[in-house]
Design a protein that fits this description.
By secondary structure, the chain is an alpha+beta fold. The protein has eight helices and nine strands. Strands 1, 2, 3, 4, 5, 6, 7, 8 and 9 form a nine-stranded antiparallel beta sheet that branches. α1 packs antiparallel against α2 and α4 crosses α6.
Length: 279
């Protein structure tokens, strides 16, 4: 399967560069998506953030280097730590002992093997979706610059929703386009990304808000309901891990969109719009 082949090639590239600079854009290119989407999808597929996986793999190799006689400072520099203190902190977080003890007889260290993705057939519950083709549409709302690092992004987006929460009512009068509902949109860019809390709208942009045009694309649209944000995150995880690998589609160069269909206080109903193209 091309999807699995591409992702495993990206992981091969990551392994080859553990002792150098890891180019997230190149990993995304090999996997067929943006650097942002690569980090996001990896966290769902692997069950841990990409940054944490890289740290564990580097510290696994660092332990081997130290046991083979390399000096602590040399190993720290090899894996990108200019400060011995930072390396000591990272090593101890993974292994539970400082790097100076790695050579001692009988010391217990941890090994985190590399990940390789493979297709596993699951008997999970059905997923109902539809492919929707949309022309470009305009959104209006609030935005924030989100970190390119996915670990930081996962923390920044919920904080932004909490910050904007009291002002969501300002968006309701602007809601006159499709898709109808409150939208969470992360712009697609290789350089920087903004996250919008917005609505599809033809109205003028009020002071303190921003507009952006979502590009024309085909979307796989999935519906869900339940407690937020857990239900939304679980649906996104299932889309990435269960639907996408065997769907015949891959991610297109467009943002993924969260559509919230109810107003605050009502039972949560939502959609996930995943931009797709035939692979």
């Amino acid at each position: 399967m091309d999807w699995l082949k591409n992702w495993n090639e990206a992981l091969d590239c990551l392994e080859e560069n553990l002792d150098g600079e890891i180019d997230l854009g190149e990993l995304g290119r090999l996997a067929g998506c943006s650097a942002y989407h690569f980090q996001r999808m990896f966290s769902y597929l692997a069950g841990l953030p990409l940054g944490e996986y890289i740290r564990r793999r580097r510290m696994t190799r660092a332990a081997v280097d130290l046991q083979n006689g390399r000096k602590v400072l040399d190993v720290a520099l090899r894996y990108g730590y200019e400060s011995p203190t930072a390396f000591n902190r990272a090593f101890q977080a993974v292994h539970g002992v400082p790097p100076s003890q790695a050579k001692q007889p009988g010391v217990k260290l941890k090994a985190f093997p590399r990940i390789r993705f493979k297709f596993v057939l699951k008997g999970a519950e059905e997923m109902e979706y539809q492919i929707v083709k949309r022309e470009a549409f305009r959104i209006v709302g609030f935005r924030t610059l989100i970190p390119t690092d996915m670990d930081e992004s996962f923390q920044a987006v919920p904080k932004f929703w909490a910050e904007i929460g009291p002002r969501q009512a300002e968006l309701f009068p602007l809601m006159n386009g499709e898709p109808a509902g409150m939208l969470g949109v992360c712009t697609y860019s290789e350089e920087e990304n903004h996250y919008y809390i917005a609505v599809a709208s033809h109205s003028p942009v009020p002071e303190g808000m921003y507009e952006w045009t979502v590009p024309a694309a085909s979307w796989a649209v999935f519906a869900g309901s339940g407690r937020l944000p857990e239900a939304m995150q679980e649906l996104q995880r299932r889309i990435i891990t269960e639907y996408l690998p065997d769907s015949g589609y891959e991610l297109a160069k467009a943002p993924d969109i969260e559509v919230y269909l109810n107003r605050p206080g009502e039972e949560s109903r939502f959609q996930v719009w995943l931009p797709v193209v035939r692979n």
